[in-house]
Specification:
Layout lengths: L1 H19 L2 E5 L3 H6 L15 H7 L4 E6 L15 H13 L3 E6 L22 H21 L6 E4 L28 H18 L4 E6 L5 H13 L6 E6 L1 H4 L2 H14 L4 E7 L22 H15 L5 E7 L28 H5 L8 H8 L6 E2 L15 E4 L2 E4 L1
Parallel strand pairs: 1-2, 1-8, 2-3, 3-4, 4-5, 5-6, 6-7, 7-8
Antiparallel strand pairs: 9-10, 10-11
Length: about 400
Amino acid sequence: MKRKLITLIIITVFTLQLQAQRYVGGDISMLPKYEEAGVVYKDKNGATVSDPLLFFKQEGWNAMRVRLFVDPSKDADKAVCQDIDYVKKLGKRIKDAGLQLMLDFHYSDTWADPAKQWTPDAWKSLSDDQLKQKIYDYTKESLQALKDYGATPDMIQTGNEISYGMLWGTEGSSNLKKCYTNNNTNWERFTDLLKQAGKACREVCPNAKIIIHTERTTQPSVLTAIYDKMSSASVDYDIIGLSYYPAYHKDLSTLENALKSIENKAYGKDIMVVETGYSYAWALGETEYDYTKTYPYTEEGQRKFTADLVTMLNKHSSVKGLFWWWPEDNGNKNVTSGWWNAALYNHNTGQPYPAFYELKNFLNSTDISSVELSAQDDNAWYTLDGKRLIDVPSKKGLYIHKGKKVIF
């Protein structure tokens, strides 16, 4: 009985520590532009909010994500405007509000995603060796500028959705430096770039967590192959970042399968969903998966999706972050060319949709204690930080099995 009591106490303390390390929020990179346009943010009762950042914190969010482009003046898209001066000012506001800051390096003059990883114009003439030095210098200079301004990032993405590498070269070129997991072409180049970026992060922001962000959620074998290559190349990072939009990545079970595949690999990394979103009225552009039978494109459908997403993620102790993409979109078409159909604000009233209030429940998980307790009786294998494997461990190490520490 005494041993069980001690175990329960240890588990309770451990659970509280893990909960304190969880983060929930959104990518609010366009917030200053909406404010400049005179957009009014309100609470659910219709009262005007004087400072959206303080309101987000008041309602349970504790972290914000901001993207950074090398030279966004090259792009005509109004949403591509986040240069270092812009990010410094917004980053300081986030930190001053008592929120954690996630910085998302795009390493491009425009949107970087799996289909677009174009090298910045000013870097295009550089050789691979010069590019490795440039990404180190640029990352270090950017972080130092933020730090000096009082906007030190707490989490840093060294690249955005880099499932197929980054800094490919010029759009239309016949010799793009893409990476595919079924061959080794360009992988050494890619991981060397990540190492250089990570080196700069450790030097300027030693306490920040480095995130490697991918989005092959529908292809778990590709997803794990990417992180296998990161391990083989000894890339230094802390968090596996994922994108998950049902419109492009299918149902919640698809995401959960991806999470289990990563967990079973026992990489020793936390996981964060650094981008997610679901529509409140209309389908997202280029939607590939119709989830409306389960979650209609309504305010309630969006809320129910968010609640179910949170419930599922709270079953996974490895998942430490959940970020909604562009939640602050608030109906002013002069700010961007159109609305983001998965925003969390009503474009007509300026009030948050119900899904806004569901996200904070990600911080209230109590599932870890039940997982740890059941681990004493079931036949599953667990990592020391409580991650349940779907099979026997695939790597040597120390694990929990039937309530005991086991060297595998």
